[in-house]
Q: What sequence folds into this?
């Protein structure tokens, strides 16, 4: 059961991280004006990119849910119960944000409603997009603490995730409060570190799953030898 859960978590984390990184590079950042935004939206059909990005992050939810299923005792067990809903709520807001971004913006741009497009862009970026930074930062900070307390990942990797996600959370809060000088250029690098952190977790979980199999096989051999030599 544990080996299967770790492998599911590993596959979901790696595939989701790679897909999210590729799709983010293809999509790029949205322009800041209504005219540039309309031109960007009309340049191609972005809906498939947005749907793919949503599904990629859904794999992250699956990954952390799977690894959380094996943390049932110890100091990390209670934190798992707190971390699960945080990540689900963060993903839900992200999915709504990206659905509006990918579908709603396209509809307004195709209709030539630049004023409405600018209004919707400011409303979405000023609400759901900002909230995503807060919720995801907090969720991944708690998950990093879970993994650190339960020793389900290398300590250095847990600390890296905890620092980056906490910075993401704090930066998101400052953005939401519209603190001058704090914007996406500040939180984007931290979010990028978290993306790579999840990829590193996936690799670590796969190695753990292989190690658990090797450990059980070695234990089985030792027990057989002990039975053979016992009087």
A:
């Amino acid at each position: 059961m544990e080996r299967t859960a770790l492998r599911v978590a590993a596959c979901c984390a790696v595939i989701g991280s790679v897909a999210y990184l590729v799709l983010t590079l293809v999509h790029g950042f949205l322009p800041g004006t209504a005219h540039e935004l309309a031109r960007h939206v009309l340049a191609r059909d972005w809906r498939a990119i947005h749907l793919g990005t949503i599904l990629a992050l859904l794999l992250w939810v699956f990954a952390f849910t799977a690894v959380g299923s094996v943390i049932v005792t110890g100091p990390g067990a209670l934190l798992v119960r707190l971390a699960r809903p945080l990540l689900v709520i963060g993903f839900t807001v992200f999915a709504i944000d990206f659905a509006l971004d990918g579908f709603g913006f396209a509809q307004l741009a195709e209709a030539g409603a630049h004023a409405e497009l600018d209004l919707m862009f400011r409303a979405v970026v000023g609400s759901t997009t900002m909230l995503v930074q807060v919720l995801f930062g907090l969720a991944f900070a708690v998950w990093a603490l879970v993994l650190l307390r339960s020793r389900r990942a290398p300590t250095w990797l847990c600390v890296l995730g905890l620092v980056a996600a906490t910075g993401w959370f704090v930066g998101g809060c400052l953005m939401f409060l519209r603190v001058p000088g704090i914007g996406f250029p500040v939180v984007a690098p931290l979010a990028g570190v978290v993306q790579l952190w999840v990829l590193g977790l996936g690799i670590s979980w796969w190695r753990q799953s292989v190690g658990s199999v090797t450990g059980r096989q070695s234990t089985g051999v030792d027990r057989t030898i002990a039975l053979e030599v016992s009087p």
Helices lie at 2-27, 34-42, 47-68, 77-110, 114-150, 155-176, 184-229. DSSP finds seven helices and no strands in the chain. Residues 2-207 form one domain.
